[in-house]
Every structure is written in structure tokens, then in C-alpha cells.
Automatic annotation (TrEMBL):
This is ABC transporter ATP-binding protein. One of its GO terms (cellular component) is membrane. PROSITE patterns: ABC_TRANSPORTER_1 (PS00211), ABC_TRANSPORTER_2 (PS50893). Signal peptide: none annotated.
Amino acid sequence: MADNTKQAGERVPTVIADGVDIVYRVNGTGAGRGSATAALNRILRRGRAEKAAGVRRVHAVRNVSFVAHRGEAIGLIGTNGSGKSTLLKAVAGLLPVERGRIYTDGQPSLLGVNAALMNDLTGERNVHLGGLAMGMSRAQIKERYQEIVDFSGINDKGDFITLPMRTYSSGMAARLRFSIAAAKDHDVLLVDEALATGDRSFQKRSEERIRELRKHAGTVFLVSHSNKSIRDTCDRVLWLERGELRMDGPTEEVLKEYEKFTAAPTRR
Ligand SMILES: Nc1ncnc2c1ncn2[C@@H]1O[C@H](COP(=O)(O)OP(=O)(O)OP(=O)(O)O)[C@@H](O)[C@H]1O
């Protein structure tokens, strides 16, 4: 009998989100906020009466389901506060889900503008530490070091790589973060607005690198407010609005609807 589950060219799932809800809890919104009694109350009443204890719930993602496959580059779009970064963090395993499940193949890496590099250490040290944190060996880092520095362009205007990160402009720091993260072939790479921070020529290089990463069989998620970046990089788009998945489909189809939505004067 034919085995229908293993056809040639079968698409391999890398991330599965199944009915995902994500809720933030914000402390200190009730009466007596910040006081020791309020804090004690929160501990004692935990779970039973969050509201009475001054805990506000922010329901950031609601019942979102999708399946991402190997080789796909998926854009996440939506107006401010629609839940894009929250969803990305949950896929990276940095936020718990309230309901539903997220399954991933391999360890997803979140590459955000806020990725933790040490401000007091030099760019050079950060390249080494960042590489180690991603699971690269010392030998691998040594081998890739020059490539990372060249890609970042940090040394184009002088020997900045041997200066502490705090002396870098925000664009330079973002470029170094992206370069470190992009040095490794990731199973699932999550990019949050990183492309928007560099200048145009760096954005071009990053887009190229994302395309390369895709070729190496990974899956890339890109959160961006630049429809152009999404068009240039992604073949599929998830559109979130108020935490709900409004559309999931080919880039052009989804962007067409999204552009109509954002152009309308009374969209909320
Ligand atoms: N740490 C937090 N605590 C409480 N609420 C939060 C927290 N982070 C985000 N939120 C809320 O969750 C919702 C979704 O935020 P999120 O940052 O995921 O949106 P976004 O689509 O990435 O927005 P933007 O395009 O502005 O970056 C918003 O209502 C926001 O206020």
C-alpha cells in the first residue's frame, strides 16, 4: 500500500501553534499599590482573586494557530500592540502560554533589538560571548570572527570593535547583534524589527542573509512595520490584530488587505 505520509518534497513542520492564548499579569494596579500589604495580599490571594489583589490581566494573544514549515520566511504584521512581539517571544520559549500549545523543532533563536549584549564589554568580547551563548564552539567563533565583524560594518569607520558597546550608536549596536545571531545557521530564527534599525545598505545585507538562512533549511519569522522589508523577505504573512490572527496567506494577498485596513480612517 502506498505510504501517503512520506511523499517526495513533503513539507516539514518546524513550529506548530495550536490555539495559543497569552496573558500578561501586571501587578500594582489596585489600591495601595507598591505597599508591603498589597504585595502580601497578592501572595496570599494568588489565583483566587487577582483583581482584588490589584493584578490586571492583559490578554495579548487570542486563540492563534498556525503551522510553519522548513524553508519558509514568515512575516508577522499588525498595528501597534497587536501581539506580534508577544507571539514571537512565546515561540522562542521566553513567555508561557495561558492556553494551547506551541511545538518547535529545535531551539528557536530570538534576534531582537533588545537581545542582551553587555554594554561595558567591547564588541569583540560580545562577539565571543554571543557566539558561546548560541552554542558555537570557541574554534567556530574564532573561524567566523572576522566574517561577523566585516558583516556588521562596525570597523568601517575606525577600530570600534575594540571599544565598549556603550560607545556605539543604537544602529551600530543593532548591526552587531544581528551579525552575531546571523553567523549561525538556525533551525528557527525569529527576527524582531532588526532590519529597521540599520541603514539602507545594512538592511540590504541583512535581507540577503535571511534569504541565505532560509536556503539552509531553517524557518525565519520577521516582525516588521516595513511592508517593503516583508515583501522583499517573506513568502507568507501572518496578520495579527488585537491579538487575533486575522489572515494567514501569501505575502501579496495579506499585505493587500492590510494596506486597505491601515489606510481606512476608522479602522478601530
Ligand atoms: N510586559 C508586558 N506587560 C503587560 N502587557 C504587555 C507587556 N508587553 C506587552 N504588553 C501588551 O500586550 C499587547 C501586545 O503587545 P506586543 O508588544 O506584543 O505588540 P506588538 O504587535 O509587537 O506591538 P508594536 O508593533 O507596537 O511593537 C499590548 O496590549 C501591550 O500593551
